[in-house]
Design a protein that fits this description.
With 326 residues, the chain is α/β, with parallel strands linked by helices. It has ten helices and eleven strands.
Length: 326
Amino acid sequence: MVVTGASSGLGRAIALELANRGARLVLAARRGDALEDTARQCHKLGASAIAVETDVTIEAEVNALAARAVEELGGLDVWINNAGVTLFAPLEEASFEEHQRVIETNLFGSMLGARIAVPIFRRQRHGVLINVGSVLSEVGHAYVPSYVISKFGIKGLSEALRVELAKEPDIHVCTVFPFSIDTQHFESAANRIERAPYALPPMQSPEKVATAIARLIERPRRTLHVPRALPLGLALHALMPRAVERLLFDALTKFHISNELSPSTYGNLYEPPRQLTADVHGQRPPKIPTPAFLGWALGRFVRNELTALARRVQGVLGRRRLAEST
C-alpha cells in the first residue's frame, strides 16, 4: 500500500492504522525526517514500512515512488492520494501562483498518483485507489477557495476514473469525504488573511478517519462520508442552499476565523514547515463545544430566515404600493 502525505496528520494516522493491521507500506511525503519517524512507528507495530521522500507535484518523483513500491512489494494493492495543502485567502487576494500551488498539490498530485497507479492495477486486474477529498468537495467555503476547487476536482477525478474502469470489476476507485479533522492542517496552512483559523465543530480525530479508510480498503465502495451523518447536512444544503450558505458564512466568520492575529505566511505551500512536529494531532481545537455550536446554529438559522422573510414581505409590499401609485 502507498500512502502520500504520510509525515503527519491524517496520512500518518492512516499509515499507523494500516501498519496495525499488518499492511506492507510505502510512505511518501516531502518532510524526510518526519516521514522516517512515521516509518519507525509502523515498524514498532510489526509492519514493513519504507519511507520515500516525494513531492507529489513532480511527476518524476511520483513515478519513482511507484517504481520503488512495485520493486519492494512485488505489486501494488492500494494507492491512497492523501497529500494536500491549504491557503487561507479570498480568491482575489494572495498571488495567483499561491492559489495555483494548492491546485497543483491537491488535484494534480492526485492525478499524477492515479496516472501511475491505475496502469499497475490494470496489469494486475485488481487494486484500490482512494482519493481523499473533503466535505468541501461538495459544498463551498468562504476563506479557502483554491482548496475547495481542488477538492471538487478530486471528486471529478474519481468520477471520471470510475467510468474509465467500468469494465474492471476488481479495480475500485473510492472517494473519502471527511469533515473537520484534528490535525496540523490549520497551523501549517498558508495564510494571507492574517488571522488564525481554528477547526469548526464537530471536529473528529484523525484516528477515526483512518479507521474508516482502513475499513474501506477491506470493503471498497464508491464514496465514504466521515462522519456518516454528514450527508444529512449536505441534503439540507441541497434543499435550502442560500439559507445554509448564509449560516455557513456566519459560522465560519464567528468560529472558524478567529480574532487572533497570525503572520502572513506561505505555510507549507512550497516546502514543509520545519517548526511542526511529526504528529497526528494539531493544536487548533474548535473555539466552541459541539452542543453549544449546534444551539447557536439553530438560533442563527431561524434568525436569518426570519430576516429573509421580512425582506421578501417588504419587497412585495413595496412593489404593491408602487403599482397602486401608478
